[in-house]
Amino acid sequence: MKVALVSLGCPKNQVDSDIIAHGLLKAGHSTTADMTEADVCVINTCGFITSAKEEAIENIFNAVGARIENPKLKIVVTGCLAERYKDEIMEDIPEVDAVVGIGSHDKLLEVMEKVCNGEKLSCYGPKTKLDITKKRIISTPRHYAYLKIAEGCSNGCYYCAIPLIRGPHRSRPMESCLEEAKWLAEEGVKEIIVVAQDITRYGEDIYKENKLAELITEISKIEGVEWIRLMYAYPERLGDDVINVIATNPKVVHYLDLPIQHINDRVLKSMNRVGGNAVIMSAIKRLRDAVPDIKIRTSIITGYPGETEEEFQQLYNFVKDIRLERLGCFAYSEEDGTKAAQMEQMPVEVREARADSIMKLQTTIMAEQQAEMVGKNVRVICDDYDSENDLFVCRSVYDAPEIDGEVYVPGNSKMEIGEIHIVHITESDIYDLYGELVD
Ligand code: SF4
Questions:
Q1: Within a 13 Å sphere around the CA of 388, how many CA atoms are in the beta-carbon half?
Q2: How many whole angstroms separate alpha carbon 44 and alpha carbon 22?
Q3: Which of 1, 307, 332, 422 could form a disulfide with 438 if both were Cys (CB 3.0 to 4.6 A apart)?
Q4: Do residues 260 and 280 make contact, with C-beta atoms less than 8 angstroms apart?
Q5: Residues 246, 243: Cα–Cα separation, whole Å
Q6: Stretch 67-81: mean pLDDT
Q7: What residues flank ligand 1, with Cβ below 6 Å?
Q8: Cα(415)–Cα(435) distance, rounded to whole angstroms?
Q9: pTM to 2 decimal places
């Protein structure tokens, strides 16, 4: 079969798509980006928050639209939206031929054959299976890749649907993580980006102790791995052993994604976030003391049910005073089935106005911090070449793919896509930097 595989959502879902793609190719099928020539379109959806759900539904209707030109096209929906809205999808969008839960990716080929024989079905297995140990392809540019070290989440934040969708936290055995990291390095991957819903819980379930620092150290011993980037750390569980690895291991980049969501103790408690203001402030201080040039990325939520003007002001002052280097702010969106959705909701305009004011403030902070990079040399990895502007598009050690800024270098520089270089920063704007090749 020719399969159009659409991958939506976060890097963790992207890894699932890579595993699905590997299974398809191994079974002799081929993939195509063109839905008008495909036999089946598999949409690996995100269903985390409203905007992601809207994007998923839009993609489903794109496939329905493609059927006008390609009447034989079958539509299979999987991923978080499928897991969350088992029955609604096929009821509300009868053009969908099958929905497959995240616990049944191993049945996807069978489902595709059945829909091509005219069947309509839904297939859901227990979430407990850990598909992430399976082989995959690399759908990111060849020099960086996401390594998923666990599935699910047991933190139970009251606003979050992930535990409902993905089930409890399940760590992936270390051998399996290392085997994949070795394979990625053999395939030319230099930057391994370690992801999970909460990487700081790694190992506690299967080894009865936290093994994140050990795992990072073992990955760093793999030949060919040059950069290790850590995403999705939980402040309360950020151990000194992990901070020490960031500080001392030359392959671990001085960057950490540390979602905090809020800074007010009462709001954090009502979110069911473990560890209050003091724990978050301590995590940031320990990181900055041990790694003075670290760039901390975080995400925060405004307009959570019950957030008072004073509590919001505390969050605003925190952003202003602590000046985290990378920050995303989201207006709270109530999600079906979550505890917070049953609370008294605040008007959407207030939630959004608060998020806008935080992002306006953060834009100023970012511009000032980027300006401080001018005159410095920084290690970058070259992601791409922009022929229209004759510029190499790179990322510094301080920037994760797709969410952070870029470093632009003149196109006549002796650079190679996928290679790591030293660049002298000559100019900055809010998110991006401009520089000249040094090495
Ligand atoms: S840590 Fe909280 S917000 Fe993050 S995935 Fe788990 S439950 Fe959701």
A1: 0
A2: 14
A3: 422
A4: yes
A5: 5
A6: 96
A7: 153, 155-157, 160, 162-163, 197-198, 234
A8: 13
A9: 0.95
